[in-house]
Amino acid sequence: MTAATKANYSPREIPGGIRALGFVSMLMDVSSEMIQALLPVCPVTVLGTSIVTVDVTKGIAEATASIAKIFSAALSRCCRSRGSPNCTWTNFTGDC
Questions:
Q1: Residue 82 and residue 41: Cα distance in Å, rounded?
Q2: Is 9 left (phi over 0), alpha (psi -120 to 50) or beta?
Q3: How far apart are CA 90 and CA 79, in angstroms?
Q4: Are 39 and 51 in contact (CB under 8 A)?
Q5: Taking the model in full, what pTM does it have?
Q6: Rounded to the nearest 5°, which phi and psi values hold at 6?
Q7: Other CB atoms within 10 Å distance of the CB of residue 87
């Protein structure tokens, strides 16, 4: 099958193992979303921190993740345009 062709499978033709993996993936996603709401409870109740401290910490973590995504995307684009698998910091900061 080439990249231009698209496989058209009906739901009955999908193998059972693939269905099982999809179902397990869905359950993992649901469980992680359920626990995500409970995570701030521990620092507030056990450690006695304020809700503001937990929110500020969460905001810093999300900002750091976003900044890392921006820099990694720029680094990826830089390496791809140069065509070399070896990317250095000078390639990243220089003219890409």
A1: 48
A2: beta
A3: 11
A4: no
A5: 0.51
A6: -120, 130
A7: 15
pLDDT at 73: 82
pLDDT in tens, 28-76: 999 998 888 888 888 899 989 999 999 999 999 999 999 999 888 888 7
d(CA 41, CA 55): 12
- pLDDT score, position 14: 84
**C-alpha span between 30 and 32 (Å, rounded):** 6
Residue 96 in this model has a pLDDT that exceeds 80 = no
In contact, 75 and 87? CB cutoff 8 Å: yes
Residues in the chain: 96
